[in-house]
Amino acid sequence: MGILERKEREKEQRRDDIICAAQKIFFEKGLPSATMDEIAEAAELSKGTLYLYYKSKEDLYLAVAMRGSEIMYQMFVDATPPEKPTLRRITDLGDAYYEFFKQHRDFFRMYQYFENPHFHKQVSPEMFASCKCNDQRTWGVVIGLIQQGINEKLLDADLDPSQAAIILWSIGNSMMRQMDRDDNYWKEQLKVDLESTMRKAYQLVLEGMMTEKGKAQYQQLMLLQE
Amino acid sequence: MGILERKEREKEQRRDDIICAAQKIFFEKGLPSATMDEIAEAAELSKGTLYLYYKSKEDLYLAVAMRGSEIMYQMFVDATPPEKPTLRRITDLGDAYYEFFKQHRDFFRMYQYFENPHFHKQVSPEMFASCKCNDQRTWGVVIGLIQQGINEKLLDADLDPSQAAIILWSIGNSMMRQMDRDDNYWKEQLKVDLESTMRKAYQLVLEGMMTEKGKAQYQQLMLLQE
DNA sequence: ATATTAAATGACTAACAGTCAGTAAATGCA
DNA sequence: TGCATTTACTGACTGTTAGTCATTTAATAT
What we know:
With about 230 residues, the first copy, chain A, is mostly helical.
């Protein structure tokens, strides 16, 4: 009685076909300009079918965005194998975030809508919960790493790992958002290169969070990288 | 021959009526859910008239947002009179940004669309240029203040003022964006209070940028504030 | 009083998200 | 095999919205 299972597989396949088509169109046009008709055509399905699998345009949008989260999570994990020294893992995590931005800028751009309170209201509670769960896992990696740094007395003992994680993430996120918006704007108007600004910011914050032992190791690490 | 001038004034008045109505509706609904018909009704004008004064919904949206920029600029200037000590002016500038967020959250929220590359393309070049000009002026305040700090040997001499300004602004911006998105999400999921996280971040970065002289003054300032 | 110009209107078009009655295909059963 | 039932899919249709433009209304000039 493998029929039910085959059907299940086929259904999953359809969901995937739809997401692939949606990804293509959302990447090209962005949320407001992409149309469900276009997506349906790209998926070689009728529009009605799209709504059998996803409740709304916004839900479908989030489903695509979550693929990006998956990729990001994998990149985070891959960039920080436990055999590396902890401080190295922390700096490499920052680099991995930047790599994600460069390699998957379209995904990165998608998240912006998720940060908009008005967009939130358009999304089904189920999809929202699913995102939250995904998010949680990624935060776990970052926070765990900082906790490790504290345990090894590389980072200040009175540091709150969650707080530190949010601070580091905020810097990268905000900077990359501006790079995406218009890198040239900043170059021309303020004569500033955003990539080096971001590195400077990371460095300032990290050093501020470190113990003396941490700082010493960090200096060595930086020298090695030249 | 005051007729032309009166007409000019009346035209300005209409532009203002429209912005006021648009502000009300955009605040309530956000960009995608607000409709031009609603705005027209609130302005007691027909929709066609709206388009005599603004090229598109997006242009009108930006016109409203620029009012917020004006308020923010004024708050920045008011919070940093030259008679205050420079370090105090710098910390007060950060506080002023946070005050703006708390008092005019609806305006703050509006800027999000401006950070979206796809939204950019919907806006007329004239309106875009107007925004840029407005922006420039505000950056001038922040960068000037940091330059002053460097001149007074409170901040590191090798610091690039534009870079430093972007770093400080990024932190505030990113944190407040998250507070706006859903303050409780962070409290519940990560047990973190975003306001204190933001203060911690500002402190880390500022101290990282300071000379020894600056740090000494900063400590005193902090003690005074308790 | 009349002509000319400027301002404002709202019915109209095209495009879109989302729906749903109907069709086609697959499966279960005799 | 043929028929009944369930499941998957369709695309024409509805309601809504941004933006347009021929027409009307009001103000000014002669």
